[in-house]
Specification:
single chain, Rossmann fold, 13 helices
Length: 344
Amino acid sequence: MNSDPRASARRRATGRVTLADVAQAAGVSPITVSRALRGERAVDPELVERVRAAATRLGYVPDPAARALASQRGTHVAVLIPLLSNTLFVDLIEALQHTLRPAGYQALIGITHYNPSEEEQLLREQLMHRPAGLIVTGRSHSPAAQALIDASGVPCVHVMETIDAPGVHSVGFSQKAAGAAVVRHLIERGRRRIAFAGAQLDARTLQRLEGWREALGEAGLHDARLEWLNPAPSSMALGARLLEQILAMKPAVDAIFFCNDDLAQGALLAAQRLRLAVPKRLAIVGFNDLTGSDQMVPALTTVRTPRGEIGQRAAQMLLTLMRGGTPPERCVDVGFELVVRESS
């Protein structure tokens, strides 16, 4: 087959194998190469195999910058999460990537550290690269960050919370309802002095606190002195300290709802050191069903949150939006599960 002098000239100028090179080697048009490598179903399977074989033989790597320039959108999805050290968000990202990658999109992750200013700066940086879509955690953003999202025109899905508002797409569950479910379980077990121990104090923790307040209020048991709120990052060490502080209260508490499992795990370990009988003397409940909670002694009662399902369904919703479609639901509630174990 005769070589295309224009393709050869471009290759010499940039040092890269181009889309035109692959098209020439496969004997198809450049647009067919583009569609085949994007995985579009309209392309004949035989042509797809021919294009992929040519691309592999030549060592072709698509140029995302060129594609973004041509389409005004890139092939990456900007994903903003608070932390990578929390298993909760690792599970979410794995599910997002598992769904987005076969569709031709890559997740570009930004870590906000629960800091509104960092989130705003990350949004500015990500939007400069023309992402095809956005995944953001929750709806509690600074006014400037929310303005960036709204003005960008980029399809956006909020995760970990249910947000029933016009024009907003979300996948999550009711943090408030989950918090209330924990309290009702403890009341059913005969507990009356139920403390709430919260760390980090992000929006979702405060929503669980609202559920705690509501359920105790309905039972006539709410006491604001039982709210133990610490803005420090959630950790096992902090959970141990909070347990010791709460145990000093008079009259004594008979249950503690920790806003995250790492706090509750630390409290259980501290209870062992203090020879405190759990759940006979004190019931302990966590949240998120993190790794190891079922192996604690006693095994930790907690709320299982479907992070994988949230990631998968958020990615599916975003793919529909990026393709110009309308998702069947704007607000998807995947629910939660109270996992009752030995600690309550």
